[in-house]
Amino acid sequence: MASTYNAVSVSSTATLVLDANNGRKGAIVFNGGPEIIYLGMDNQVTTTNGIPVVPFSSMNQTGQFDGWRGAIWGVTGSATADVRYWEWIG
Question: Structural domain tally of the chain?
């Protein structure tokens, strides 16, 4: 099984964290802080409609993203957050 990982700076403008991937078997998105990040399925994600991930915590496909193969976008309320992801494909 192959995997990819990377870091993305997420700001108050919707930022693509992870491209859509039909081969995705799982993914982890980690918020390295210092801001809460809000995750969504497209560039319309905001702090009021996105799923919040507090600093130094993560969301993963085996829980919250179960079966999601579409894009993952993120946004913050103000400052830039250090976001890391790990995706495995089969």
Answer: 1
